[in-house]
Design brief:
single chain, Immunoglobulin-like, alpha+beta, 12 strands, about 350 residues, five-stranded mixed β-sheet, three-stranded antiparallel β-sheet
Length: about 350
């Protein structure tokens, strides 16, 4: 209206908005950048050099900060400690963003290994948003150690197969190494000698390796992924026929003489891994077929298949074919139904 003057928001409101931007702005930018990173890694296979570089830097800063944190705080050098903590948080963020796409691509979200992907996602989100990280992690040192161990384990378990280490050995070695590097923290917390601390860390690492070995089915076999999978009635020159539509009638099943589970498994070039098809009817194992070892490097995946012709007298029900490593990690799953 004529004669009126424009009223600007009070200064304290602007200060509040600026404080909000300062508190959350970097985190939001980091979150958007992380989402873009997840989109860029189509197969979730970053260069092994990036992973190793991040791990070495994380280990060095973690070890040094463990030894000098109290001395720096006593000298009033708290800003150096804050900077080191923020660097460690950033390295966690980077490692988890490297690992997440690989584990997501290798997981079957409806199985137990989907929980490991969920754990990585929760940790990645915590590392992304600074206020949440400070509220959850900083007051609880044990949560920081969980971050360190899980991030290290997840990154190593992806990196080692990229250089040709077999899947199961990679899991065991990653679990052992991710706990063994806690030696400096154990020495600082317990005031033990290096020898005592290393022995305890080694024992804990061995326990972690055994635990991971026993519960390996809960961990996706990254970087192995199912590039293509379908149920068909024939395979010619390693190319599948048309996919069969579910449900398949018992009469049609017998007329076709069985069905074929076709899978193309993507693996890095240097990796060689034995794969099995586990045929199940209503959850019960009917047959386990050991296939030729997958040889990595083919972008479309190493093609392999198994044929099921010896069905039970009453094959009606829900069938699934679990695509697994020989050590028991689930890579993917096919489903079909046979109707009576």
């Amino acid at each position: 209206m004529p004669g009126t003057t424009r009223s600007w928001p009070p200064l304290d409101i602007w200060r509040g908005e600026l404080a909000w931007i300062k508190r959350w702005g970097i985190s939001i930018v980091s979150f958007v950048g992380g989402c873009l990173t997840l989109l860029v890694f189509r197969r979730g296979l970053p260069g092994v050099g990036w992973i190793i570089g991040y791990l070495v830097l994380l280990w060095l800063i973690f070890v040094v900060l463990t030894q000098v944190r109290q001395a720096l705080m006593a000298r009033g050098r708290s800003m150096m400690v804050v900077a080191a903590d923020y660097t460690i948080q950033t390295l966690y963020h980077g490692l988890l963003l490297f690992a997440l796409p690989a584990y997501y691509a290798s997981s079957t979200l409806t199985s137990a290994n989907g929980l490991f992907v969920l754990l990585l996602l929760v940790l990645a989100l915590l590392a992304t948003f600074d206020p949440l990280y400070q509220a959850v992690v900083h007051p609880r040192p044990w949560v920081s150690l969980v971050f360190f161990v899980v991030s290290t384990f997840a990154a190593l378990a992806v990196a080692l197969p990229l250089i040709g280490v077999p899947q199961f050995i990679s899991l065991i070695a990653s679990a052992l190494a991710s706990v063994l590097v806690l030696t400096p923290e154990i020495r600082r917390a317990r005031r033990w000698t290096w020898k005592q601390s290393f022995a305890v860390a080694g024992a804990l690492g061995l326990a972690a390796a055994i635990l991971v070995g026993l519960f390996r089915a809960w961990i996706p076999p990254a970087p192995l992924t199912v590039a293509r999978a379908l149920i068909t009635d024939r395979v010619e020159h390693l190319e599948p026929g048309a996919p069969l539509e579910s449900p398949i009638s018992v009469a049609d099943l017998r007329r076709r003489g069985g069905v074929v589970a076709y899978t193309a498994i993507y693996a890095p070039e240097s990796l060689r891994e034995t794969i099995v098809h586990v045929w199940r009817l209503n959850g019960a194992i009917q047959e386990v077929v050991r296939l030729s070892p997958v040889e990595g490097g083919r972008r479309e995946g190493f093609r392999t298949y198994s044929r099921k012709s010896n069905f039970p007298a009453n094959p009606a029900g829900r069938w699934r074919v679990d695509v697994m490593t020989s050590s028991g990690q689930l890579i993917g799953r096919l489903r079909f139904r046979v109707a009576s």
